[in-house]
Amino acid sequence: MARLRVGVLISGRGSNLQALIDACAEPSFPAEIVLVVSNEAAAQGLSRAHAAGIPTRVVPHRDYPDRARFDAALDAVLREAAVELVCLAGFMRLLGDAFVNAWRDRLINIHPALLPAFKGLHTHERALAAGVRLHGCTVHFVRPAMDEGPIIVQGAVPVLPDDTPETLAARVLAVEHRAYPLALRLIAEGRVRVERERALVDAAAPGSTLLNPDG
Ligand code: GRF
């Protein structure tokens, strides 16, 4: 069966990109990354793509007079590569409504918190300040409002009494690296559908809830 053609948008380190690259390296994995796009020329994730032999494009947001034209440039490179699903992986630009609506249910994101809690930035600091006992990550379909949209997979980790934002971030990142490939697999196998703004996962599929007690 043809593998789902995936484009990954990054801005930096690219460790989630790496997790997706590693998953796609498995011959039986139902998706392949056909393009990695960064808005930052210095993004470490670009070297990860080069090492894996994946084509890359740099679309610097500073080169465009406004968001609409930047988004249109992104859209053009994705379509040129015949991308079918877009994965945001540490992509630090907000996408406008036109782009988000054009890719509706074909655009997913990973967020380092158990949504709908802790949308936005500095999620680990805020989780510690709130005193929550569980924290984690969410892979979701993207909607125009930031960090909103049907939830596909969540991964949870404990918050420990002596955690710092850094130790908690590392524990969450480990579960992110399992959650994103799982969500991609479920979508590529056609096991996810959106109904009334909830993502429903085929009951026969591997569970879409991950627990990572030891990080
Ligand atoms: C991750 O924590 C992800 O959840 C968030 O940005 C971070 C990106 O890290 N959206 P990386 O670039 O994938 O290493």
Structure description:
The protein is α/β, with parallel strands linked by helices and 215 residues long. It has 2 domains: 1-103, Rossmann fold; 109-215, 3-Layer(aba) Sandwich (Rossmann fold). It contains 6 helices and 10 strands. It has helices spanning 15-24, 44-51, 67-80, 97-102, 123-130, 165-188; strands at residues 4-10, 31-38, 56-58, 85-88, 107-111, 134-141, 151-158, 192-195, 198-201, 209-211. Strands 3-2-1-4-5-6-7-10 form an 8-stranded mixed β-sheet, with helices on both faces. A two-stranded antiparallel sheet has the order 8-9. β1, α1 and β2 (31-38) form a beta-alpha-beta unit. α1 runs parallel beside α6 (165-188). It is globular and about 50 Å long. 41% of the residues are buried. The model has no long low-confidence stretch (mean pLDDT 96). The site of 5-O-phosphono-beta-D-ribofuranosylamine has 13 residues, from α1, β5 and α6.
How would you concisely characterize the structure shown here?
By secondary structure, the chain is of the alpha/beta class. It is 33% helix and 25% strand. The chain folds into 2 domains: 1-103, 3-Layer(aba) Sandwich (Rossmann fold), CATH 3.40.50; 109-215, 3-Layer(aba) Sandwich (Rossmann fold).
List the helices and strands and how they pair.
Elements: E1 4-10, H1 15-24, E2 31-38, H2 44-51, E3 56-58, H3 67-80, E4 85-88, H4 97-102, E5 107-111, H5 123-130, E6 134-141, E7 151-158, H6 165-188, E8 192-195, E9 198-201, E10 209-211
Parallel strand pairs: 1-2, 1-4, 2-3, 4-5, 7-10
Antiparallel strand pairs: 5-6, 6-7, 8-9
Helix pairs in contact: 1-6
The protein binds 5-O-phosphono-beta-D-ribofuranosylamine.
